Amino acid sequence: MIAFIKKDDLRWIQGRESIKVFAPKAPYKYSRCFCKICGSSLGEILSDADSFPIAANALDADISVRNQFHEFVSEKPAWYEICDDAEQFEGHPTSA
Fold this sequence. Notes:
- This is CENP-V/GFA domain-containing protein.
- It comes from Roseobacter cerasinus.
- By secondary structure, this protein is mostly beta strands.
- It folds into two domains: about 1-60, no CATH class; about 65-95, no CATH class.
- Helix content is about 0%, strand content about 25%.
- The protein is built from no helices and seven strands.
- It has strands spanning about 1-5, 20, 30-35, 40-45, 50-55, 70, 85-90.
- A three-stranded antiparallel beta sheet has the order 2-3-4, with no helix packed on it. A two-stranded antiparallel ribbon has the order 1-5.
- Strand 3 and strand 4 (about 40-45) form a beta hairpin.
- The radius of gyration is 14 Å and the shape is globular.
């Protein structure tokens, strides 16, 4: 699960030097960050933007949020079932 957070709400305790960043290729917008030690996906945790997506498993506290939407569902594996009623998008969500 990915959570969008505000940069000012993120406080690094340790491990920033252990993050590896991979730049996005179109049509993706965000870089992807991974732990160099264990390989955990961390979302865009090193972003300079005011808010950005990070992997919810990278947070220490329970964030008590629910999925608002699913993106890139056209790329999900056939065995993966989406088991909620959140809106689904073939690619990035578009705004009206």
